[in-house]
Every structure is written in structure tokens, then in C-alpha cells.
Amino acid sequence: MMAGAFWNASMIFKFMKAEFEKLAASGKIEGRHIEPLTHLAEAGYCTHKSWGFGRIKTVDTVFARFTIDFPGKAGHAMDLTFAAESLKPVPKDHILARKTTDLNAVRHLAAHHLDLIKLVLNSFGGKATVDQIQGVLVPDVIADDWKKWWETAKREMKKDGHFIVPTKKTEPVVLQTTETSLQARLLAEFRTAKGLKARILVVGEIIKGVSDLKDKVATANEVIASLNPDIAAHQRNQPAVALEAIFARDELRAAAGIPAAAEDITDAQVWSQDGIRFGPLLELIPSAKHNRALESFKQTNPERWVEVVRNAINFVSAKLAREIANLIVENGKLAELKETLAKHINQHTASSEMLLWFGRERNEDFVDILGPEVFRAMLTAMERDQFNEKRSNRLRDFILEDQALIVELTATADIEVVKDLTRALQFSPVFDDMDKRSLLARLVKAHPAVQSLITGEQTKQEAGLLVSWTSLERRRLEYQEIVQKKIPANSKEIAIARSYGDLRENHEYKAAKETQKILMRQKADLEAALLRARGQDFANANTDVIGPGTIVHATDLMSKESEVFTILGAWDSDPDHGVISYLTPIAMAMLNHQVGDEVEYELHGKKRLHRIEKIEAWKTEAAPVAA
Q1: Beta bridge partners of 550
Q2: Which of the residues 50, 205, 495, 618 has an alpha carbon 20 to 30 A from that of 348?
Q3: pLDDT tens, 107-130?
């Protein structure tokens, strides 16, 4: 660029214009390109619609081209004709140029919020949207916590009087030359706002800046006087909007120190209208006001609020369901809430949104409700939504994303219940094949006994076990103890330990989780064993050969001593009384042998040799059976 320290902008402009005129005269560029090229050369910076911001490094009048540094395209050569038609000049005081020439100075300017905002707005012709402002400042100028910086900047702009800060993010922030007081600007916005919803937004801004108003009482009185007729007009046909306006009006009264007027329409009057449907009305109120609306209904309906609110939980969004549940629990009505939840879950009338909240919650307050029926209710809700052509997949996506959900919900379930649930999942139309396989894999991992139900194959390990009815009952009681008492107690321990915070250093939580692993492994082992068990009374056993249910009289041929073995089921063992399982090495060696046979086997590393002297049938009273 041909510009020394003694050249001013006017001289540069004239010089470059003369140079481009020469190029036009020689036919290297067209005459219509002289003006735009001169402005580009004078500015020294430009923008391209695809390559973004660029810095013009040199002007080559011999080869008729610019050399420009674009992001990722340093030293890019561009034909002057193409440059004139595709580039726009960017002045040296533009935020993009300032960032390029002295980024540190711009970063220091960030400490003075208004100065930096003015620089940005002037760069965009006096107005820019929040997205435009954020786009040029983050992350080059403001690397940390943009939201905090912007909130501070907004507060300062509203106080300054030279800025119009819109309530909608999509509308531009405007820099104006004349100063307007905050009070005058807010009142002007309120007066010109179209519709009660728009006015409520402005009232929110007035409340935020009430301490900076010159006359907050006069401002509040004007706003309230205007709001009251609107509230009356919306009270019956749009009660949600009327309630929101009442909340805003009353909050403004309190902020300005103005007492309520006797003629004001109250929130109690709106709630008491005929035909009010609590849940749908609440959904029409912005989520930021849900807690305010719930508290309002509670205060104005002290006798019936619990019943109305808990009945609405099945007809609102998951977020609102959580807020409703919190209100009920905080007011000591957990039992009533659990009654409602259990009813909807057990009757399969629970909505997918309520179940989405409940599945996410899963805290110790609801441990006695959380079980396989919750997952079955989820399947029913999703199938119902599918039938009714509801488009939301939120519950389905949550089930797939939460790896622990199906495991935790079936942790206390009997294996037969898990089998039923597995079949229901297999035939459910709400999951595609890939997702269904993923969920079934989680079930198999937690409950190996359902593997054959899914694959249709029987493994060697699943061969039947012969057991006595007494030992089978003992195992079933042991399984019930784990499922119905130990696992639920452990779940409560985990939930309580989780509430202590920081799971990385939470030793109670780690210990409870380790116990959970042990219990789940014991449960899985028992399920697999019970699945294989075949109960028998071992009556009328065949005494021609040795088998389960026989008493064997034998002689140890090495010691010449007589021994008696009672061979019973897989879980029957009482060595003190000579009772052994048919799966022990001694019994396995003797099985199917007859009287007079010699049986050789190894026990504890030593070879043993017995001769079978007598085989008789076992009777229940012949010997005790222990596990």
C-alpha cells in the first residue's frame, strides 16, 4: 500500500483514484470499478461473503490485483475487477479492523461495557442484534462468561439513556444520539407495546429498573391503571394471561410501595371462575412463573389445592410435573403424591411426560414405587402416544440414554416378572430393532436367566437341577429376602448417600454401590439357579442302581470300614449325617453302579476305592436334609 506517515486520508484517496483511473484508461479495469476500488484501498480492510473479514496488504497496479489476508487464506491474490464486485470496504474504526490492528486494546475496552458496545453498534450502522454483538466479541474479545458480561452491559445501557434495549433477542439494540431517561423510555415502550403479553414483558423491565426511575410511584400508577382494564378483558377468555398480568401488577405495586386497591381483580377471582382447568391453564403460563402460579393457587385454595394439584400432575409437562411434585413434598403431602403416582402407574394411565419426570427423579422418596411396573407403564404410555399420533419421543429417548434405568427398575423384580417384562419389550412397537436389542441386552446383563427367552436357546449351564422341595423353598426364601428387603434397603442407602454430595469423595456412596453389585450378583445367581431347579420328593427311587434318592451302604476297601451315603438333591448337604448332593465327586462316581460294583474316585488328592454292599430307597424321615 503506498501510504507513508505524512499521507492523510484525503491524499491517499486522491492518489489511489488517480492510479485506478490510469488502469481504466489502459483497459485493465472498467471505469465503473474505479470508485469501489478507491474506497477499498483507502479503507485497507474488507469483507467477502464467503471468506469473511480481510486486510488489504498491497495494491499491485502492474498486475491489477490486491493481496489480502483472509482467515486461513493469508496473502491471497485477487484480481481488481473481481475485488470491486465481490468485496465491501470496512473502515479502520470498525470493530473488525480494530480487532485486527490492536486486539489487546479492544480487550481492555471490554472493562468499559458501554464504550465497547458503542464501538460495535457504530460498526454496524448504529444498531445490531445480540447475536451480531456476541459474534464479533466472543471469543476474541470476551473469552469467559459472555452471559455475565452481557447482563452487566444491558443494565448499564438501560441506565445510560443512549440505548434502546429491546425485550426480544431478535430485535436490534439501537444507539441513539439524544439521551432518553430510563423512565421515559420504559413508559414509551409500555405505551406502544401491542397486546397484554407484550406489556407484561415491559412491566418486567420496569420492575428490574424500578430503583433507577426518577418517579417510581408515578410510573407504577400509570402502568397499573393501564393494566387493570386489560386484566378484566382477559380474565374469562384468557385466564393464563390475566394471571400473569396480575402477578406482574402486584410485583410492581410491591416494588413501588403502593398498596393494593379494593377494586383490583385478584388471582383468587381468576382461579375461582367456572370451567377453569388447572393443568392446561398452568401450561399456558411461562415456565418462569410456574412456581408463582402454584403458590398463588395454594394460597387462594387452602382446602382443595393438594387434591387439584396432584391430580394435574398426569396432564402437564415433565418440567411442570417436577415443580408440582416439589410443592407437594415441601408441604408435607408426600403420601398423597405417592398414592396418585402409584394409581396411575398400576392402572397404566400414567402419561409419558409424568413418567419422564418420574424416571429422571428416582430419589429415595419414591423407592417403594420404583419397580418393573414403572417400565411397563412407560411402554403403555408410549404405545398410547403412538396410537394417538403424538410426535414427542422424549420418554423413548430418555429410556435409551439412561443406561441404569431399566436395571434399577427391575432390580427388585421376581424373575417371572422380569420374563413378562422382557416379552412385553420384545413385542413393543415403540422401539426399532436396534434400540430394542440394546434394551434387551441391558436386561440380560442384569438378569442372565432371561437369555434363553430372548435367544430361544438352552445352554449347557441351564440343564435342570434336581433339588428337594425343602431346599428349593429355602432358596426361594433367600431370593425373596434379597429382592424384597436387602435390595430396597440398599437403594435407600444409595439415595441417601448421593444426597451428601461430591460422589468422588463420598465413601458412603461408594460402599453402598459396592454392596449393590454384590446383591445384584447374588440375585442373578439365584435367578439362574432357581430357573434350573426341579423340585422332587425322591420317593420311590429305583434301587437297582445308585441314583438321587438312594441310600448307599459301602465298604472302604482300603480301611475295611463300612460307610453309608444318602444321595439327594443338588442343594442337599449334611456331611455330619452322611447326606451328600448327587453332584459331589463321591456321588458322581457312584451313580448308576449296582450292588457288588467297586467304585474308584479321587478325593482331596487321594484315591479311594469302595465296594457297593447295599442300595435302599431314601425316606423323608431317614435323615435330616440341610442346605
Answers
A1: 567, 617
A2: 495
A3: 999 999 999 999 999 999 999 999
Q: Are residues 211 and 263 in the same domain?
A: yes
**Runs of H (alpha helix) within 44-129:** 80-86, 95-101, 103-109, 113-123
Which element (helix H / strand E) includes 545? none
Query: Alpha-carbon distance 539 to 617, whole Å?
Result: 8
Answer yes or no: are the C-beta atoms of 59 and 84 closer than 8 Å: no
Which residues are paired to 73 by β-bridges?
Answer: 70
List Cβ<8 Å contacts ≥24 apart for 471-474: 471/569, 471/570, 471/571, 471/572, 471/625, 471/627, 472/530, 472/533, 472/535, 472/571, 474/571, 474/627
pLDDT confidence bin for 461, thresholds 50/70/90: very low
Which of 165, 180, 195 is the last residue before a domain boundary?
A: 180
Residue 347 domain flag: no
Position 252, amino acid: L
408 found inside a domain: no
Q: Are residues 59 and 108 in the same domain?
A: no
Tally of domains in the chain? 5
Q: What is the pTM of this model?
A: 0.61
Question: Going along 471-540, which residue ranges are E strands?
Answer: 533-536
SS3 93: coil
63 shares its domain with 102: no
187/269 same-domain check: yes
Q: From the CB of residue 454, how many other CB atoms can be counted at a distance below 10 Å? A: 16
What whole-number distance in Å separates Cα of residue 361 and Cα of residue 324?
A: 13
Q: What is the mean pLDDT of residues 454-482?
A: 76
The pLDDT tens digits of the residues spanning 362-396 come to 877 888 888 899 999 999 999 888 877 766 789 99
Q: State residue 574's pLDDT score.
A: 82
Phi, psi dihedral angles at 221 (to 5 degrees):
-60, -40
Q: Is residue 414 part of a domain?
A: no
Residue range of the domain that includes 127: 97-180
